[in-house]
Write a structure and sequence with these properties.
With 314 residues, the protein is α+β, with helices and mostly antiparallel strands. It folds into two domains: 17-171, Ribosomal Protein S5, domain 2, CATH 3.30.230.10; 177-303, 2-Layer Sandwich (Alpha-Beta Plaits), CATH 3.30.70.890. The chain has helices at residues 82-94, 116-131, 139-146, 150-155, 190-203, 215-223, 226-232, 238-244, 248-257, 279-292; strands spanning 17-34, 40-59, 64-69, 100-106, 158-162, 167-170, 177-183, 234-235, 262-265, 272-276, 297-303, 309-313. α1 (82-94) packs parallel to α2 and α2 runs antiparallel to α3.
Length: 314
């Protein structure tokens, strides 16, 4: 699983390394019943899109985290930061101190249901592995220990996640898809949305079976059929997100009225995702949503795109 551990305190960093990592949208998020360990079994069709964070790792006397970008006030910079946890986990694996300065440049919405924190953790793993010459370590194993969405941020593209989302199977995609993401003020707590999902199901007396993949969605992806994909988008967490943030209904309706082929809450929300007909339509829809005054901002992107990638240094 790993190469020979380095002796403690012998990490030799020679340069800074910058890694670019994408956001994700969940094209299908099927949520099974609550498990004994507090997780849910999932069928989670991840799709990486061209909204990116960048994480730079540089040699330092101790582990520090600096976060830059818009609306980053709620991002922790201490031990709770997931990128910092990634650096510590990798350093522990190779037997060294996590002496690194991490600088996170954020574009992915914070607490927006697009796995920005998980993306930063994946980027930190890749950057520190390059900085510390930890080429013998299987980063995917560490990623799964850090969180359910972190392995996909390493992989990118489009993939089905099963288990709690960390067991990945790449999915063939026959073309490029164009998206608009409506960014809300504030965030939604992922644990709170899952808890609300469980509460709503219990209140409705709903019996929940094992999650199942949508063959219609997978076929649409393979054909590159945007219209069929839009019709197949599904998110079992959407009712819970709408229960906690009712204003999202107006955002989803505005996107549909703007001609979106499909509309859904991304992951646990509150970001709303809209599938457009083309790049031009995406630009028009983003402008219309911004002008409607329902959202903090609306941005266009495309997918699929690669996972965590070194763009400078190393």
């Amino acid at each position: 699983m790993t190469g020979a551990p380095a002796a403690p305190d012998t990490i030799m960093a020679v340069t800074a390394v910058t890694v670019r990592v994408p956001a994700k949208v969940n094209l299908q998020l099927a949520v099974g019943p609550l498990r004994a360990d507090g997780y849910h079994d999932l069928v989670n069709v991840f799709h990486a899109v061209s909204l990116f964070d960048e994480v730079t790792a540089e040699p330092a006397d101790e582990l520090t985290v600096t976060v830059r970008g818009e609306s980053v006030e709620g991002v922790p910079v201490g031990e709770d930061n997931l990128a910092a946890r990634a650096a510590r986990l990798l350093a522990e694996r190779i037997g060294a101190r996590p002496d690194v300065a991490l600088t996170i440049h954020k574009t992915i919405p914070v607490a927006g249901g697009m796995a920005g924190g998980s993306a930063d953790a994946a980027a930190a793993l890749v950057a520190c592995a390059r900085l510390w010459d930890a080429s013998g370590v299987r980063l995917a194993d560490l990623a799964a220990d850090l969180g359910s969405d972190v392995p996909f941020a390493l992989l990118g593209g489009t993939a089905i996640g099963t288990g709690r989302g960390e067991v990945l199977t790449p999915v063939p995609v026959g073309g490029r898809f164009h998206w608009v993401f409506a960014l809300a003020d504030g965030g939604l707590s992922t644990p709170a949305v899952y808890a609300e999902c469980d509460r709503l199901r219990e209140a409705a007396g709903q019996r929940v079976g094992p999650p199942r993949r949508s063959q219609a969605l997978l076929d649409a992806l393979e054909r590159g059929d945007a219209e069929a994909l839009g019709a197949a988008l599904a998110n079992d967490l959407q009712p819970a997100a709408l229960s906690l943030r009712p204003s999202l209904r107006r955002t989803l309706q505005a996107g549909r009225e703007g001609g979106a082929l499909g509309a859904l809450v991304s992951g646990s929300g509150p970001t709303c995702a809209f599938l457009a007909r083309s790049a031009g339509h995406a630009a028009e829809l983003a402008a219309a949503l911004s002008e409607a005054g329902l959202v903090r901002a609306a941005v266009s992107a495309h997918g699929p795109v690669p996972g965590a990638t070194v763009v400078a240094g190393g």
